[in-house]
Amino acid sequence: MRKMARAVLATVLSIWAAAALAEKAASSPPLEVVSRFALVEKPGQAFVDLRWAGKSSIYLADSQAGVTEVKLEEGLPEARRLTPATAQMGMRGMDHLAVSDKWIVAATVARLAWRAVEGGDWHVLEGRGYFHEVDIRGDEIVMLGLPDTETFERSRGGVVWRSDLSKGLSRWDVLYESEAVASDSHVINLQAALGSVRFLPQGGFVVAPNFLPGVLLFSASGSLQRRWTPEEIWGSGKPGKAAVGDEEAWRNWKFEPEELRRVLASRRTIDAVLPLPEGPAIVVREPRGDTARYRLGVLGPEIRWYDIPLGNVSPMARLRGDVDEQGRIVLAAVERWPQAPVASSEVLVLRLPR
Fold it and tell me: What's residue 41's pLDDT?
């Protein structure tokens, strides 16, 4: 009887904690809007990523046209071109952009290219890699995915890697290995699970794989410091179908627009991680019928949640963003796949409520 009573009490407490978290999330304060600009795609354009370029401009990456610096003014007028078209860079397209004081890096799911900021030739990694996302700081690059099949097979399900751009990415060191990926490498090859990785101003970096549960915090030396579990992110109790890291669901997914829409309509994902001065933050997509709710969670002993004041955006869109030294957040909803264009979008400049 005592065991039964303890079990009932534990269940009640678990339900109460989940309900309390849901109530807290429902009343999340909105991020403060500093400015917003219409992001209009012309025929043939497909914006995929963005980064801060200066106090009043951002780098805007187009899948085929490459990267331009645009002013944060009405109409987002072009200031200069940062790269040529992706075909001239030796790429079939672009999904991710990373820029440091030394390097520019462009990545697709299967290829990675880089060039010095001051100019020169583009270098393309020819190995059979699978790049979910990359970020750079100085010469150091961290990557979520796998650099090439041979390097991956020497690891035990390696998914987080580090290399040196000044040495031509000649060596990749594995920083995190997964038994789930080691037993079925197909888990890492799912475009639906696109994760995120970003360096932090406090040192170290944070990774949200999506195809594996939780969010990972690494030190500057590359050692794992902390893992936020799905229970910490989504609430106590069994995560269920709506949780990130449902490997079985991703494993059974097929790349068909309607099937993809069904899967994403039933699951929350972490669209991005952002390096806020207050600490790492996650941008969470929560499907709601034909639209999606987006929230930002500042990670810590407790997660502080904020609503992201977006308009009507397709639940298949992905939020991309960056943070500057003043803590200003720039976000935009971009195409997740060519089969699922965003109906309308904006570039939002936001900050935490004061």
Answer: 77
